[in-house]
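RETRY 2/3 - previous attempt timed out on the joint model. Re-submitting the same 438-residue input unchanged.
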Amino acid sequence: MPSSQIEQRKAVALISGGLDSMLAAKVIKDQGVHVEGINFYTGFCVEGHTHAIRKKDKRKEKRNNALWTAEQLGIKLHIIDISEQYKDIVINPKHGYGQNLNPCLDCKIFMVNQAQAWAWMEENDFDFIITGEVVGQRPKSQRADTMPIIAKESGAEDRLLRPLCAKNLPPTLPEREGWVDRERLYDFHGRNRKPQIELAHQLGFDDFAQPAGGCCFLTDESYSRKLADLWQARGERRYELDDILLLKIGRHIRPNERFKIMVSREEGENNFLEGYRKEFTNIRILSHPGPLALVDGTPNDEDLALAARIVARYSQGRAEDTVEVQIDKMDGEVRLLQIAPLLADDIPKAWFI
Amino acid sequence: MNSPSQKQQVHQLNAQRLLCPIPVIRTQDKIKTLNKGDLLEVLCTDPGTLQDIPTWCRINGHHVVDTQQEDRLIKIIIKVGQIAP
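RETRY 2/3 succeeded.
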């Protein structure tokens, strides 16, 4: 058959914005396969939110690495909001959590599975799925014994190709059918990043993102602690998108089981928390420049006075005998107080979540 | 797709207070419902959109006609290119 009549195969690549998924897509694209990218928004994505919020990060380039990667590769990128469906993965991971509240194995199965990449592939008449996974790279999801689980439970079976470590795995359908040349795939394994970095340079990439711990807040110990605290305080494992955004912002201080306060650390966070003032009891320092704080829970009057003293500690009036504070309660009541700011030593470390 | 006789439509999308990548996702989903040549005005407050929405447009074949910024309000005007089938 003349080469012009050979059907060009189509692959959908899971693009996280990191180096590995970029390399995987590039390796397959270079074999003449039409590649388009999918990026999933879970609500826990590291990039975006925090850079947009914090003023100290204003000078940082606020690029979205998945979009940037797609542009470097010259492929289309489809961003899919899975934040609602993703809750079940975070709350009830069948395969458990990693070191923190990261359900990496369930997450990967979910992203590849029939409801996500697989369905997209079928709907858009694509032939196979590519990921940047490498055997042995991640303790939970990228192991020789868990990779077949992802292929099987996702429903993708042998239409799931991992170009960076394909030679360590049985040949998949795209390899067996000759849609891709297995000899031009790789046998990377383990946590050593050197082969990927060398390949990146070979392929002409000098600039690439390598987020430590991946692109997900759930791999972050401090973030996971705040999420666990939220669930414990509510008495149930449940969250809304606003909850998980707020966990990324400010100092979170819980003096007792009835309430916690979220205290902004700078102007950008202050502006962001302003948007939530109608949804929380909130505390502002009137007499001095200072942070805005949201109060979450069911504090009593004594708790609110303590919260005000904590917030005052982070204002420019921290060294004064008293400062003036305004508390706007959820029921509409506005309270003006003169209170003594707490000293740094008066706030036990155990209160910081 | 628009025929030459069809009038160019101007549409609006309010993505204020939303943080990236949500404004990009909303833009993507809105454009799927529009015709080639239509204009979409996206209102945002996340400064990340200044980078992300033009990048998304470039890789998906749409054209940013104008970007305006006043205080914290950002307006990005997009001319819709070819819609994928």
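The two ends of chain A are 66 Å apart (CA to CA). Closing ticket.
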